[in-house]
Amino acid sequence: MRPEGEQAMPVRRDWTGWLFVLIAVAAIVAVLSLSGRTATGQYGTRAHPVAPPADVIPEVQPMELAPVTEADAKAQNAKIPFVKKGFVAARPFIYAGSGDGRARARDCLAAAMLYEAGDDSRGQQAVGQVVINRARHPAFPKSICGVVFQGSVRTTGCQFTFTCDGALNRRYSDAAWGRAQANAEAMLSGTTYPAVGLATHYHTDWVRPYWSDSLEKIAAVDTHLFFRWPGFWGTPGAFRGAVSGNDAGIAKMATLSPAHALAVGTLPPPGLTGVDANAAVGEAKVVTGAGEAAGRDTIYVALDRRAAPESFVTTALRLCGDKPYCKFMGWTNPTLKPDSDAMSDMQRSAMTFSYLRDDKAGFEKALWNCTEYKRDDARQCMKR
């Protein structure tokens, strides 16, 4: 009750504080909208990531290792949980170029696969998938050779250690190199290795790179652990970069690859002084299988005697293409090249090279006539 005649005290409405709150909220919403971030810290929603601004592309860290023992590294790596949510396999990759550019890309990829994983097909495919993932990602060079040899001009900072630690001075057998080339060619032609998803990094479980704590561990292949970037940069939307279809020559590859040796103006060492694989083919005849042998093609080819014997593998892979079954037989003496399996003993003994692929049986093998071309590994020789 107020005394009679007393005026009611006017109520003061102070909107100043509320105004500042509204302005702050609006500013936060505007920043989130411009950056594409949601409250979870990801770009866009989990189902539909939105590409962040181009200037926030993640930095590629060098392969620097923490000073820990192998036992401690294994224990620490084991404690990092696998991130399975959002795991996606990479899309098939088709190399856009042909000829010498493709041969250089194939050999760079083959070198990475062989020197990083050894003569192991599964490990090679895992490494090859990481190289291709990197080539498609905006944080890395846009060519196969560029990815493999990134940072190799320095003694530290190379992304693949074999490119700067002198490993390329060590030689694998011709058969091992041929198998790596075959695996590389397959991956440039659409083969994928789904087990490592969109991984852009990997390391063995007995080391601890400094970058491993900032990435998501998504897969393991034998003793190798595979990682992707968190957020948008580890999702399919980030892997959209156009990859060069004409890889440049790499001087460090010259002693291993004729295609690189010719590109950088050096002479390949003895045994690699062949003409390009595309020029190493004379007359070729394809006999298509019929009846129960339908789809089982046989290719009879006249080979160039001047070509490097390793180039015959490339020729076979090129002519067989993506056929699940292909038998390739070549002769450097064109007068003895038959047109069918109904060949004489003389024609059979004069065969220079053979390649057989049977995907259904999981079989692939290349053999040389070792009386004509000497091989380091006797298992590469045809039985006479």
Walkthrough of the structure:
The chain is an alpha+beta fold and 384 residues long. The chain folds into three domains: 18-50; 70-263, no CATH class; 277-380, no CATH class. The protein is built from nine helices and eight strands. It has helices at residues 16-35, 70-79, 99-117, 121-136, 144-148, 174-188, 258-263, 311-320, 345-349, and strands at 201-204, 216-221, 224-228, 281-287, 297-303, 325-331, 353-358, 363-368. The strands form two sheets. Strands 4-5-6-7-8 form a five-stranded mixed sheet, covered by helices on one side. Strands 1-3-2 form a three-stranded antiparallel sheet, covered by helices on one side. Strand 7 and strand 8 form a beta hairpin. Helix 3 packs across helix 4, helix 3 (99-117) crosses helix 6 (174-188) and helix 4 (121-136) packs across helix 6. The longest helix has 20 residues, at 16-35. The termini are far apart. Residues 1-13, 28-48 and 267-282 have low confidence and may be disordered.
